[in-house]
Amino acid sequence: MLFLKSDRKYLEIGLSRGELDLNEIIISPSLNVNSFHTLSNLDLHLRPINTSQDLMRLVPGLFIAQHMGGGKAEQIFIRGFDADHGTDINVTVDGMPVNMVSHVHGQGYADLHFLIPETVSTFDYGKGPYYSEKGDFTTAGYLDFQTKDVLEKNIFSLEGGNFNTVRGLIMLNVLDAHHRNMGENWYIASEFNYTDGPFTWGERYKRFNAFSKFSTRLNKSNRLSISASAFTTQWRASGEIPERAVNRGSISLDSNGRVVTLPLYQKPIQRFGTIDSSQGGKTSRYNLIGKVKTDLGNNLGMENELYYSYYDFLLHVNSTFYADTAGGERQQEERRNVYGYLGKISKRVYWAGSSLNSSLGLNTRFDNTYHVNYSFVNSQYQLVQEIAQGNTQENNTGIFLDESLEIGKWILNLGSRLDFFGFHYHDSTKANWIISPKINLQFTPNNRTQFYLKLGKGFHSNKAVTVIRNNGFETLPAAYGGDLGMNWKPSAHLWINTAIWYLFLQQEFVYSDDGNIVPGGRTRRYGLDLSARYQVFPWLFADFNLNLAHPRLADSSKSTGYLALAPTFTSTGGLDFKLKNGINGGLSYRYLHRRPGNNTGLLSADGYFVTDLKLNYSQKRYEIGISIENLLNTKWNEFEAEEISRLKGETSPIDQMSFTPGTSIAGKLRIALFF
What we know:
This protein is mostly beta strands. It has a single domain, classed as TonB-dependent receptor, beta-barrel domain (Maltoporin, Chain A, Beta Barrel).
């Protein structure tokens, strides 16, 4: 964006992005301690994106899974973590937290479905607990999305495909070109989705999104942006089904934990069938964000942001069926208001060829959760037995200080944050605080090589109900981590990032029965990350990511203490192309290796290798595209978990893996108009 001033009038000229050329990207010292900006910019610029799931998969080594209908937050797997729905990864949009504390379905529940992917301008991510601005849930890392201030062109698109899938999108500038040139921008966006999915019991998944953002330059020093978004969805779920319900002679465990082979289930069902048709849910979220950026002069800047969210959630889930005396159907429900503030002041000082960047920040968040209900219900959703009820209030206030000193080829970053938590549940209150120091060192000997060392402490908070009841749980268990890595550009068109890492958690949170917490003990993880980007030709790009992890309980022997569902070996990659005649697209794959299904390793979750294809013909005024998911029609399980379940005709519960199948081959056709 180019800014000009003349006679007290301000003119802003949008600069269009040029063709991507890896030859023009050099490695240079940066006062930002994150080493992944180059990767994120490359991938967002190259990849065709039209879902929030596509956005999350841009992070190398991050895998997601949906297992209870399309409306739930995705299960997240990264760096040896089954991070549940967000317990170990901090997710934000325009600074506003996505994670929900003390959520009825799990701590840190991060439902990103309110984000329309076409509104995203940049995304940023970091692995590990090394970032002073990032607080709660930043153990495995963080993921941050920034929405566009300026809409380059109006868009109308419509797509449809297998399984009655339909998506419509419209994005419109509200103000004319004259206002945009004067620095005022206002656009609106709306999205509608519907699909039945591949299941015999169709999901009937419906989602509506709306987004609006206004930005203006108040004067030479201040810029204001205000955004509002609304999201509502409802669906029904096929749910997880035990292996024995489909497979002859499937493997399970008896009541003593011994491996047994089960006979054919009395009435086998299809892989895409369902056992309990009353599962499903509905949810919505409404957000309002106001942000002011101020240039105070003399290399001093300030940011202030206020946000508010209203959220409600209702889910019916049954993964145990007749194993419980009250029946397996569980109802989870909550509503909440979230109020928050983010503030930061930054100063940059130069002297004798060196520079110091100092930041002091404050964030505070208050969650008022009410209408909380967690109960057994029957198939008509009538109450059978209460499991837990009670409203919670929770406050988190954090202060951070960050100092980055650049001296020649070296950068030293020192930071720390102090977080205070106040928990309130059933007339009981408890307060806790934690200090999280960080240190990052970077050495860039030339414009092709960069080495870095990251050390830091992070944490994730516990649920308010668990904190008040305590029973030996850590309130704010700490995570201690280290990364040793390098960015390397051995040739003009090849860029490589690699790191070895270690992470120790003071206490792992393990969730059972979709929301209950059991102590997980101390855990340790170490591994290797490798990412490469290669420009084969001016129009053809290759990417490759390899992620290895060794996750274990810290107090166990070498042959025990597995962490259920924690990924140990993942890889993603593909080819993306952009021809001058407008043809573009890509072929991608994702591989998840077989991993332990429980802590003893007697059960296991299957791995998979899935490929996707996207092709577009893009012109100035229109675009036509097709996408094919699971191009090779691989038989794969999107999600698996150990469940103790009992089916009709069985005399006792059985401990076995249950699964949600991944989609079969599915195609979509998209037509978009630009005006």
